[in-house]
C-alpha cells in the first residue's frame, strides 16, 4: 500500500472561498450573541468573583507579610532587651558579690580586732598575775632575808652586803 502521488492536488486543500469566510463569520457572530445572551453575565460574575478572590489572597498575603515583619521586629527588640537585661543581671550580681565581699572583709576585720583585744586582755591579765606572783616572791624573799638578818646578829656592813646582793639579784632577773 503506497500513497499515490499522481492524483494529489494541493490546491484542493488550500482553497479559501468567500462563501466559507462569510459562513464562518456569521456562525461566530451567532455563537457570540447566544453566549452573550445566556452566559455572558454568568461569565462576568465568575470572572469578577475570581478576581475578588485573587485580590483577597494578595491582600491577605500582604497582611501576613506585614504581621511577620512586625513579629520579627518585636523579636529583634526582645533579643536586644534580653541582652541588656542579661548585662544588667550580671552587673547586679557583681555589685552584690562586691557588697558581700566587703561585708565578709568587715566581719573578718571585726573578728580579728576582737581576737587582738582578747589577746591584749589575756596578756594584761597574765602580766598582772606575773607581777603579783613576782611581788609575792619578792616579798617572800625579802621576808626570808629579813628573817636571816634578824636571826643573825650581823654588823651593818654584812647587812648592807645582803641588801646589795638582794637588789642585784632582783635587778638581774628582769621581771
Task: Please explain how this structure is put together.
The relative contact order is 0.02. It is built from four helices and no strands. It has helices spanning 11-14, 18-38, 40-151, 156-172. Helix 3 runs antiparallel to helix 4 (156-172). The model has no long low-confidence stretch (mean pLDDT 83). The N and C termini lie far apart (154 Å). The chain is mainly α and 175 residues long.
Characteristic terms for this protein:
175 residues
Portion of residues in helices? over 70%
Rg (C-alpha, Å):
64 Å
Strand content: under 5%
The main sheet comes to: none
Global outline: rod-shaped
Distance between the amino and carboxyl termini: 154 Å
Helix-strand string: HHHH
Provide the low-confidence segments as ranges.
none
Outline the fold blueprint:
Elements: H1 11-14, H2 18-38, H3 40-151, H4 156-172
Helix pairs in contact: 3-4
Amino acid at each position: 500500500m503506497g500513497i499515490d502521488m499522481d492524483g494529489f492536488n494541493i490546491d484542493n486543500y488550500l482553497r479559501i472561498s468567500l462563501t466559507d469566510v462569510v459562513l464562518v463569520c456569521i456562525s461566530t457572530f451567532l455563537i457570540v450573541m447566544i453566549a452573550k445572551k445566556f452566559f455572558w453575565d454568568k461569565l462576568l460574575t465568575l470572572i469578577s468573583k475570581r478576581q475578588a478572590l485573587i485580590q483577597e489572597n494578595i491582600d491577605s498575603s500582604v497582611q501576613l507579610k506585614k504581621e511577620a515583619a512586625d513579629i520579627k521586629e518585636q523579636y529583634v527588640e526582645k533579643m536586644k532587651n534580653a541582652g541588656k537585661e542579661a548585662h544588667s543581671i550580671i552587673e547586679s550580681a557583681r555589685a552584690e558579690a562586691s557588697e558581700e565581699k566587703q561585708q565578709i572583709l568587715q566581719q573578718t576585720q571585726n573578728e580579728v580586732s576582737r581576737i587582738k583585744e582578747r589577746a591584749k586582755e589575756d596578756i594584761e591579765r597574765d602580766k598582772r598575775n606575773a607581777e603579783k606572783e613576782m611581788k609575792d616572791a619578792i616579798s617572800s624573799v625579802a621576808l626570808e632575808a629579813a628573817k636571816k638578818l634578824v636571826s643573825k646578829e650581823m654588823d651593818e656592813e654584812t647587812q648592807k652586803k645582803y641588801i646589795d646582793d638582794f637588789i642585784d639579784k632582783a635587778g638581774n632577773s628582769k621581771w
